[in-house]
Amino acid sequence: MNKEAEGSTIYAQMLMAEKTGENDDNRLNHNGDCLKRLTFDNVITKDRYFEQDTYSWPHASPGSVTVIAVGNRWKRDDDGDCERMVRDMCYFAQNQGYKVLFEEIAVWYGVFPNPSVASAREAGGLTARSFGTEYIFYCDNDIKPEKELLSNLLQYNVPMIVPMVMDQNKSSMIGGPIREKDSGIYNQKWASMSALLMKTCLLDLPGVKFSDADTEGLFYQRIARWGHTIHIDTSQVLTTVTPPTRPDSKTYDEREQMNKDRYAAIFEKRVPMDAVAQELFDEAKKTGQDQVKVM
Q1: Which of 93, 101, 212, 288 is the most interior residue, by most CB within 10 Å?
Q2: Was domain 65-247 assigned CATH 1.10.1200.10?
Q3: Over the Cα atoms of the chain, what is R_g?
């Protein structure tokens, strides 16, 4: 054996010997080769990488998440501003070591005046795929999350998990079966999508589309056909500014009033932009017409 080959053999033996050392960066991959020169942003990504390596191909950016805010207008009440609280949640998770990307997806209208939230979630899924993050976190624009919510859900490293979203009208959680607060983590048949953390790759499963599911339960059922279940962490309690608007939670009259309110919010009274329009507006208002067309 020449010296060059002998040197390579010794170097290979040293590499294989290092895998049993105290340095966690030297591990075996699926092919039995020692992984060298692996670099990680922080301890979180390193630990998640090697945890995933025991059962699957690790994600290139373990724990990364795209936060998709679904809605047209951020809500607020006396207790807080939803946009600020969601952004604080993202900043907190980022400071913990997670890679967090944020995107707002506007909701357009399908069968007017009902908003097509499902289509907005589909668009959010495409955004998360383009970013290449391991997770996608859907959140509505009326949630009031604690700043630790996202990082607490990410720590479980499961395909799909939600917090306990409370129904203000009934003083109970939204989902089924009903769980008690701080009672543990359970598998659910369905849960609210006001806040949903799921692996982005689940959206690539055949037949799994938000737009093809009329209810949350049907969406989760289609994912369950591929062997995945939705988890709920009862220690993470989430409240919202507005009550649920799903049809099965309202009477016919309530649904009709909800549609009228949405219609009125879209076509608000026109505010004149110049003196000419102001004069025409004042003239029209005398006759009881609040809207005026200016050519």
Answers
A1: 93
A2: no
A3: 26
